[in-house]
Amino acid sequence: MKHLQKLNLKQPEYDLTEWEESIKDVQKLPKDYPEPITAPLIIDQPSDTHISASELKSISTELVIDSTANIDNQTAKKFKREEFKVEAVLDLHGNTEKEAYTKVINFVKQSYAANKRCIIIITGKGINPHQDDDIFAARGILKIAVPNWLNSPEIRPLILAYKHPSEAKGGNGALYILLRRKRG
Questions:
Q1: pLDDT digits (tens, 9 = 90+) for 70-83
Q2: What is the pLDDT of residues 62-113, one digit of tens each?
Q3: How far apart are CA 103 and CA 110, in angstroms?
Q4: How far apart, in whole angstroms, are the C-alpha atoms of residue 78 and residue 177?
Q5: Which alpha helices (H) appear in 34-122, and where do they start and end?
Q6: Angle at the Cα of 33 (from 96 to 154), degrees rounded to 5?
Q7: What are the residues whose beta carbons fall under 8 Å from the beta carbon of 69, sequence distance 6 or more?
Q8: What's the predicted TM-score (pTM) here?
Q9: Are 87 and 119 contacting, i.e. CB atoms less than 8 angstroms apart?
Q10: Which domains does the chain show, CATH number per domain?
């Protein structure tokens, strides 16, 4: 404050009602919500990601957001209601596209190898307040790219379905992913 007085500047005024309006729907995460993984994930040895031939036949289709075509009805209902406990979270904020790709591939493989069933990848919503207001500026590169990466041959066989979770779990800035059970 003193530095503002020396420069003969007034303290900026903030509109408290705008702030309160913008945070009215913010909720605390549940205590059992896992901490996001921000450190690079490295798999020293190839994980055991073996999928049987019969399972591979059902994997031939491309993953589409919100599709539960390859899941039995009971599991699909549970997935749609987000009843699977989130066991791991990967936050991609601040990553380049190249860094994010490596992290996503490693994260899915590592989660599958660790017998995790449900994971979340936070891509962000693609709104950068520091960008100009050009309506044609590219936004949300990771938000667009990550769903495509989930169909890559390396990790597609490990994933049953994915969708945008409820706002409490990240909304359209995240992906709620159901992994296959590791058999054998």
A1: 789 999 999 999 99
A2: 888 878 887 899 999 999 999 999 999 999 998 999 999 999 999 999 999 9
A3: 10
A4: 12
A5: 53-58, 73-80, 97-113
A6: 45
A7: 61
A8: 0.66
A9: yes
A10: 36-126+138-179 (3.30.1370.110)
